[in-house]
């Protein structure tokens, strides 16, 4: 057995689903489904943290977005970052992505990822894969402060939210509202906007119209549910001195509220429907800004959001956020969205993990001491290997189903060292291991000393400087 002490994991307990990943800070989630997997993207707060770990998250150094995916909602594959600063060197900063996909005439699924170009505008990236490579088709903002028709109330044309309706038409919401001196101005501050996208998804096909959102601030998102457009947004911090909507209480400060319509370009048609997610600070966590994404996956609705919980567990201050998710109840007939609450526990795994396919070591529920690097950016965008920063680094894959008896283990590795397989308890004796000394990537296979069957949590424990890319068990 490895003699080095196992590294602690202070950011996440092994029985918790949240935060989704602990190797970096990320925020402002969005999601798209592709070939049965759910892909999540977010603002790379970690880039700002690395610039000044002891400082405040002021966002201006962030020029990348984070990618991760899952098909069981507990084990996540970290796909690395989208380097927006390299792909779109004209940007100021990149935050708060929103993504959709559509099968196009060339027979390929195209992905359209919109993001805040700082507070100045909205940029767009495209790809024919959910993990890239990505390109900037316009070479400039799709929308910014110089775009005609914004109107005076849209102080910051950022925080995009995109949706494609049942007719295949794309819609983009965006906008930030300022603070005013009067109750009337703060009640409907006038910063929320919506526009129809062109057939190419990278142009505008209508006038820009206001969404009259009460106490609007930022964090715009769109869904299309049961023939209806659902707009969600973050409310401001102003006092609720005015309220004129019957049957609804005023939304709390910096919470998530929503509105619905069937005619998005008609401002008078938008109906305020209520508050569905209060600030995490009102639910036992720290107060922060607020940004959510509502997504239906595998027949269930999930709410993706961010909190400051990971930085608190790591003893960090400054506003570095991490992505969480919890189930949320949505009545598709009435479009009632029930209140959701932040939690560390999250939800249960929706399917067991298959050990007999080729899996990446970058797919895990939680880990300690691992760093992640691109295997080959030229031919394998989004595919990462892990490196053990020191002996006793480890990862955990939950609910692995050895339906058929496993007799061997194969791993693609590089370097000199050892990887141990431990079942159900990280302190258990190894159920198998590999030792290797390789200067190039090589698949190493070993027979297991004892056959493995049934369902297990699988821990991989690494010696120092081991590089590991893929693994699989054999029958």
Summarize the structure.
With 475 residues, the protein is mainly beta. 4% of the residues lie in helices and 45% in strands.
Structure commentary:
Helices cover 4% and strands 45% of the residues. It is mainly beta. It has 2 domains: 311 residues, Tachylectin-2, Chain A, CATH 2.115.10; 116 residues, Jelly Rolls (Sandwich). Strands 22, 24, 25, 26, 27, 28 and 29 form a 7-stranded antiparallel β-sheet that branches. The protein has a 5-stranded antiparallel β-sheet with strand order 1-2-3-4-23, with no helix packed on it. A 4-stranded antiparallel β-sheet has the order 5-6-7-8, with no helix packed on it. It starts with 26 loop residues before the first strand and ends with a strand. The model has no long low-confidence stretch (mean pLDDT 96).
Bin the helical content. under 10%
Category by helix and strand content: mainly beta
Strand percentage lies at 35-45%
Biggest sheet, in brief? 7 strands, antiparallel
Task: Assign the CATH architecture of the largest domain.
Answer: 5 Propeller
- Give the CA-CA distance, first to last residue: 24 Å
Q: Determine the CATH topology of the largest domain.
A: Tachylectin-2, Chain A
The strand count comes to: 29
What number of domains? 2
What is the C-level CATH assignment of the largest domain?
Mainly Beta
Looking at this protein, list some descriptive labels:
475 residues; mainly beta; Tachylectin-2, Chain A; 7-stranded antiparallel sheet
């Amino acid at each position: 057995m490895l003699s080095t002490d196992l590294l602690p994991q202070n950011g996440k307990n092994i029985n918790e689903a949240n935060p989704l990943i602990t190797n970096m800070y990320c925020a402002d989630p969005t999601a798209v489904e592709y070939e049965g997997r759910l892909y999540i993207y977010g603002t790379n707060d970690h880039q700002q943290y690395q610039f000044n770990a002891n400082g405040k998250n002021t966002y201006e150094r962030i020029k990348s977005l984070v990618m991760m995916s899952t098909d069981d909602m507990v084990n996540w594959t970290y796909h690395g970052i989208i380097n927006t600063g390299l792909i779109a060197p004209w940007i100021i900063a990149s935050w708060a992505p929103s993504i959709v996909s559509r099968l196009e005439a060339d027979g390929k699924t195209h992905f359209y990822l919109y993001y805040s170009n700082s507070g100045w505008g909205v940029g767009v990236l495209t790809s024919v894969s959910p993990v890239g490579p990505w390109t900037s088709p316009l070479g400039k903002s799709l929308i910014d402060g110089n775009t005609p028709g914004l109107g005076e109330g849209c102080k910051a044309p950022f925080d995009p939210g995109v949706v494609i309706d049942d007719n295949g038409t794309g819609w983009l919401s965006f906008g930030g509202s300022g603070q005013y001196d009067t109750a009337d101005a703060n009640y409907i501050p006038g910063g929320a906007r919506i526009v129809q996208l062109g057939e190419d998804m990278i142009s505008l096909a209508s006038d820009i119209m206001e969404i009259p959102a009460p106490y609007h601030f930022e964090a715009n998102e769109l869904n299309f549910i049961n023939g209806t457009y659902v707009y969600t947004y973050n409310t401001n911090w102003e006092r609720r001195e005015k309220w004129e909507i019957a049957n609804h209480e005023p939304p709390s400060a910096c919470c998530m509220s929503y509105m619905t319509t069937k005619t998005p370009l008609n401002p008078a048609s938008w109906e305020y429907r209520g508050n569905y997610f209060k600030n995490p600070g009102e639910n036992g966590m720290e107060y922060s800004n607020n940004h959510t994404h509502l997504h239906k996956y595998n027949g269930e609705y999930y709410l993706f959001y961010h909190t400051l919980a990971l930085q608190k567990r790591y003893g960090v201050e400054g506003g570095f956020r991490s992505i969480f998710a919890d189930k949320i109840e949505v009545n598709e007939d009435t479009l009632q969205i029930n209140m959701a609450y932040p939690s560390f526990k999250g939800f249960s795994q929706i399917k067991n993990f298959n050990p007999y396919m080729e899996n990446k070591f970058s797919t895990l529920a939680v880990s300690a001491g691992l760093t992640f690097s691109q295997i080959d950016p030229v031919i394998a965008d989004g595919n990462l290997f892990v490196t053990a920063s020191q002996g006793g680094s480890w990862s955990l894959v939950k609910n692995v189903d050895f339906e058929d008896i496993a007799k061997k283990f194969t791993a693609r590795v590089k370097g000199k060292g050892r990887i141990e397989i431990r079942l159900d308890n990280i302190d258990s004796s190894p159920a198998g291991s590999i030792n290797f000394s390789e200067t190039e990537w090589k698949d190493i296979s070993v027979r297991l000393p004892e056959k493995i069957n049934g369902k297990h949590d699988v821990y991989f424990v690494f010696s120092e400087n081991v590089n590991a890319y893929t693994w699989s068990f054999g029958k």
